[in-house]
Amino acid sequence: LIQQTIYYLIPLENRKILHKSIGRSLLQSGYTGPAVHVLAVDQINISCEGAALSSEERSSFAKINVTAAKFAIAASSFEKARSYIDAGMNLLEPQHWEKQYSLCLQLHEMSASVSYMHGDVRNMSIALNEIMDNVKSFEDGLRSSSLLVKLLASSAQYKEAMSNCLAVLSNLGEEISTDVSLPIVRSELSVIQTTLANISVEQVQRLPRMTDKSKLNAMQFLSMLCMYSLISKPMLLPLFSCRMVRMTIEYGFCDASIVGLSTAAFGLFTFTDDILLGYRIGKVCDSLIDESPNRHALRSRLCRELDCSLKVTVEPNRTVVPLFIDRYNSAMMTGDVESAMLCLLAYCTGSFYIGTNLVSLTKTFKSCIEQAANYQQTNALHVAMSNFRAVLHLTGRSNVEVGIKSYEELEEIGKNTNSQLLLRRILMSQMGNHFYDRNWVKVMELFEKNPPSKFNNVLVTGRALYGGVASLTLARQTHELKWRRIGEEAVEKMTKYEKVSSANFSWVAKLLRAELHYLNGNLELSEATFKASIRAARDNQCVHNEALVHELYGIFCIENEMVDNGAKQLQMALEKYKQWGATNKVNDLQMFIDIVDPTSLRALMNTPI
User: Fold this and answer.
1) 3-state secondary structure 422-468
2) For residue 27, what is the enclosing H or E element?
3) pTM to 2 decimals?
4) What is the pLDDT of residues 428-487, one digit of tens each?
5) In terms of Cα–Cα distance, which of 402, 391, 403, 305 is closest to 349?
6) Which candidate, 247, 235, 255, places its Cα nearest to that of 299?
7) pLDDT bracket for residue 22 (50, 70, 90)
8) CA 386, 450, 589: angle at the middle one, nearest 5?
């Protein structure tokens, strides 16, 4: 208090002179670390408020604010960075684009970048428009072009975002045709399969560093194309990733090379049956990321390709899903809000599929939706809403204090923005709702309305489960051959995935085989396989999967006059669903249990016709 009183006794102009003197002394002290520089700039900025500064001082002080902003961004202090950027802009000359072009360009690029990190679309647009109106060359506009692509993608304008990337690549000498078909994709990937069949970390590390600036810039825009094609037009993804791999081999290695290798691995997983080669390449990429100074940015950027697809398919998914929240934290640390929201969305969705308690998951989904809305990441927002609807259906809750669009509204958005990711997630969410309601006809209406994908993804296994159980049940009830055929295809698909990872898929494959044995009239084998599925689900440690198998086994028992065991299995399913927090499902199953009470059933069976 005494120090503050003495400070304010000093006349204002003298205080400003004192602050400027302290700042200059710190800058000239020889200590070049971030803490000293930031402290010096804070002192000088206080002295600049309302002060008459020379042209040299204004330019000098603007430059040190740029450096301070860089230090703040590196420390993930984005609010502080914004204050330095604003201070630097206020110090520019009236005709700054003519007199201070490089400094002005740097400040506006940083302004757009930090605005993006805050989800401040308005100020980001203002900064980018200012750059586009004044930039002197194509090369000078590359950074703003990449930010414009991110701005377009944040509002789900994927077609425009990808067109901008392709235009930039054309100017960089990289012409890429977007006319694509599955044979073209598989032809590209067959070359990559041969090229990367024996890839190792050591082989990649022996490559020279990429130094050609044009190629380095091309790799950055190809990386963005990989990200947005995955959402909007997945078939293009292998073309972009294969181009990145070839450029790496020809021109050398850079951080974007890891993106190219990771997406090539994802392409092998998605479009071929060589899932394990894709996984092995992904493990090489993991090692390369660990050794990169930009490991946080790369891990979060590649969460979908490496973690959400390859790892979660091959490794026990309960051990993989917790990684997604670490990826979210890495992205927020580096200011990559786009990747952060996608990682948080993956954590929410993955938590649902590993049977996390739905009450606690409701809170996580609400946080994801609120953050995606705050940062104006519309695709993550709408996919989160679609997935959250599945949670709400199972819990029976409606008042969750956060606005959720209907499936119809979300589907319209998905079609308008050509977000294939959103449309696929809506389908799976709706199929899952009808599946847990045991409304097999509705499940298959959606199944037939949306034909199966020609390639693999993590949703394929869910589709096989929902469609497989529903079709095999309808085949028993209607004796229609088309339902049998769909069910047999689901069994074949899940048997293939069981070979890739028994930990994740053995319980599903066994459950579908149990239903197929039941359809074929082999009741003894069906019962043994149901029991094997229960054991596998228990080993999988996902309570909702165990609940489901108990439920279907219980129904099998009751339909085949094993009433006491059927009632026991249904009661076990009820307890597991309670653990999951699926209140609406619990109520539905309890009503079914009351109807099939063993005493009532025995009386019915013994009633003469």
Assistant:
1) HHHHHHHHHHHHHHHCCCHHHHHHHHHHCCCCCCCCHHHHHHHHHHH
2) helix 12-27
3) 0.87
4) 999 999 999 999 999 999 998 877 665 556 678 899 999 999 999 999 999 999 999 999
5) 391
6) 255
7) confident
8) 60
Confirm if 528 and 536 have CB atoms less than 8 A apart: no
Can you list the pairs that 547-552 forms with residues at least 24 positions away whose Cβ atoms lie under 8 Å?
547/572, 547/573, 547/576, 547/577, 547/579, 547/580, 547/582, 548/511, 548/573, 549/507, 549/511, 550/576, 551/589, 552/469, 552/511, 552/514, 552/515
Q: Which of 467, 442, 427, 371 is nearest to 118 (CA)?
A: 371
**Please, which pLDDT band fits residue 604 given cuts at 50, 70 and 90?**
very low
Give φ, ψ of 141 to 5 degrees: -95, 5
Give dist(CA 165, CA 225) in Å, integer: 7
What DSSP state is assigned to residue 292?
A: S
pLDDT in tens, 162-221: 999 999 999 999 999 888 888 888 888 898 899 999 999 999 999 999 999 999 999 999
* Bridge partner residues of 209 (DSSP): 253
Q: How far apart are CA 221 and CA 26, in angstroms?
A: 40
Distance of CA 194 to the CA centre of its chain: 29
* Cβ-Cβ contacts under 8 Å for 332 (sequence gap 6 or more): 76, 340
